[in-house]
């Protein structure tokens, strides 16, 4: 049978074998955590605690400051040591609540399972998801309650669960689908109820046959949920590509999945939603793949948010002597780290450790006009021209050619024979254009 997929894209070496069979392990409770007030798309949180205050695990410590925002919770019990700027994995110094643990991991409440989620109203489910601080755990960190609150004009008919995990190396979603398939299925049903849709689709790339089998079994009692195996291709986990692959709908240029009646969520998000709605449990931990040839023992671990990367590296036996690069996320869209003193945040899907053998030393050559980048771009853009206009700061031309539609998948840079850092230049261009737009908007207020 021909597997479904989207047009264009690339197929980088997968390297999943390093950790795909490693069962989930729970990291020991850390002695201290650094919890950023900003770890989601949207407005940062306002701290609700003060230096010296004692907190319990699961206690709210930062309140949302807008609709597109998400609260944060204490992930260990202990004392707030300080609220200050610390290194953030997004490459900045960010405000964080530093908690030193009391070693008790005392929770704010017990999370006894409730059985009547099916009687909850849509608004009640969305409220529980918001209060639990749930954001997209695939890496985008967009607040989930916002996705579950489409405007009345947008008729949503399909929920798509993203089980692609198309980035090379990463295996966190894979392990969750294999080991926590019932929770993933429950979260899928809750998300479908919150959106009032009768159709659920789970897209999983065909390099995870055990995950496909587990999800088929976990959803076998529900005729309205279909598991669709997909051809392995990058960036199939990007929402627009996934929607095209599983239900053959085209999200318009500049549009959102909502415009074609779809909401997409990730596997980890579905589990977090299930825990929030059935147990009223906040998001205080996530699954992280620690992998690459630069880590002694690759693993998939459940780590408390705010745990320093160093703890996870130590738990995996440490770095190899020739490790030269650490990335948060995968090699295509991840963010290079310059210190291990950064905390796990809600968006930390993986910590990739690469050696001097695996890191390609890029020497850039002139563009040979081969058009390969155009052939790879899943958004039908002209990467070579976008990168050029961004480099010469011709913002108008870059915008006219659709630079803001770039999903920053990195496929263009991956295939470029001249090793031109196309996506890096396009990313900088997008940042500058968005910044100018924000300033222009502020000036008119
Ligand atoms: S231009 Fe953007 S969307 Fe197109 S391949 Fe490059 S990074 Fe991906
Ligand atoms: S793939 Fe590289 S060399 Fe070829 S057209 Fe694009 S930027 Fe130029």
**CATH H-level name of the domain at 113-279... which superfamily?**
NADH-ubiquinone oxidoreductase 51kDa subunit
Low-confidence blocks of residues: none
**Distinct ligand kinds:** iron/sulfur cluster
Question: What is the element string, with H for helices and E for strands?
Answer: EEEEEEEEHHEHHEHEHEHEEHEEEHHHHH
Which bin fits the share of residues in helices? 25-40%
* Number of continuous helical runs: 13
CATH architecture assignment of the domain at 113-279: 3-Layer(aba) Sandwich
What does this structure look like?
- It contains 13 helices and 17 strands.
- The strands form four sheets. It has a six-stranded mixed beta sheet. A four-stranded antiparallel beta sheet has the order 2-8-7-4, with no helix packed on it.
- Helix 3 packs across helix 5, helix 4 (181-195) crosses helix 7 (267-279) and helix 10 (383-391) crosses helix 13.
- The protein has helices at residues 122-131, 144-147, 172-179, 181-195, 209-218, 239-247, 267-279, 309-315, 372-376, 383-391, 395-400, 411-415, 422-444; strands at 24-26, 32-36, 46-47, 54-55, 60-63, 72-73, 78-87, 93-101, 158-163, 199-205, 225-230, 262-266, 285-291, 299-304, 323-328, 335-337, 350-355.
- The longest helix is centred in the C-terminal third of the chain and has 23 residues, at 422-444.
- Among the domains are: 113-279, Rossmann fold, CATH 3.40.50; 372-444, no CATH class.
- It is α/β, with parallel strands linked by helices.
- A hairpin with an 8-residue loop joins strand 5 (60-63) and strand 6 (72-73).
- 28% of the residues lie in helices and 20% in strands.
- The structure holds iron/sulfur cluster (2 copies).
């Amino acid at each position: 049978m021909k597997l479904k997929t989207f047009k264009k894209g690339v197929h980088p070496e997968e390297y999943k074998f390093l950790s795909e069979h490693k069962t989930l392990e729970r990291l020991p409770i850390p002695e201290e955590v650094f919890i950023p007030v900003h770890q989601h798309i949207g407005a940062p949180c306002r701290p609700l605690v003060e230096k010296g205050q004692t907190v319990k695990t699961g206690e709210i410590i930062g309140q949302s400051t807008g609709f597109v925002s998400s609260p944060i919770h204490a992930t260990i019990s202990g004392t707030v040591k300080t609220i200050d700027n610390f290194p953030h994995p997004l490459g900045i110094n960010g405000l964080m609540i530093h908690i030193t643990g009391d070693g008790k991991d005392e929770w704010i409440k017990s999370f006894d399972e409730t059985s009547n989620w099916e009687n909850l109203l849509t608004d009640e489910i969305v409220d529980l998801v918001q209060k639990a601080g749930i954001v997209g755990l695939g890496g985008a960190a967009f607040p989930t309650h916002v996705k579950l609150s489409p405007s009345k004009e947008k008729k949503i008919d399909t929920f798509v669960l993203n089980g692609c995990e198309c980035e090379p190396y990463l295996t966190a979603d894979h392990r969750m689908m294999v080991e926590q398939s019932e929770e993933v299925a429950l979260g899928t049903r809750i998300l479908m109820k919150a959106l009032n849709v009768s159709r659920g689709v789970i897209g999983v790339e065909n390099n995870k046959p055990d995950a496909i089998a587990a999800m088929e079994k976990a959803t076998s009692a529900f005729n309205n949920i279909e598991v669709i195996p997909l051809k392995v291709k990058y960036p199939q986990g990007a929402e627009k590509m996934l929607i095209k692959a599983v239900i053959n709908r085209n999200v318009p240029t500049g549009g959102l999945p909502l415009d074609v009646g779809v909401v997409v969520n990730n596997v980890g998000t579905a589990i977090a939603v299930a825990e929030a709605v059935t147990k009223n449990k906040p998001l205080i931990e996530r699954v992280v793949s620690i992998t690459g040839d630069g880590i002694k023992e690759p693993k998939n671990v459940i780590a408390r948010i705010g745990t320093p990367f160093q703890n996870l590296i130590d738990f995996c036996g440490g770095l190899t002597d020739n490790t030269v690069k650490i990335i948060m996320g995968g090699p295509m869209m991840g963010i290079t780290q310059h210190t291990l003193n950064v905390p796990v945040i809600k968006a930390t899907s993986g910590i990739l450790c690469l050696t001097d053998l695996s890191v390609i030393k890029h020497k850039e050559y002139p563009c040979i006009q081969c058009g390969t980048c155009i052939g790879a771009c899943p958004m039908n853009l002209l990467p070579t021209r976008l990168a050029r206009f961004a480099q010469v700061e011709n913002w108008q031309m870059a915008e006219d050619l659709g630079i803001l539609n770039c999903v920053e998948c990195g496929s263009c840079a991956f295939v470029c024979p001249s090793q031109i850092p196309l996506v890096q230049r396009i990313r900088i261009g997008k940042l500058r254009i968005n910044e100018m737009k924000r300033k222009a908007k502020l000036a008119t207020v």
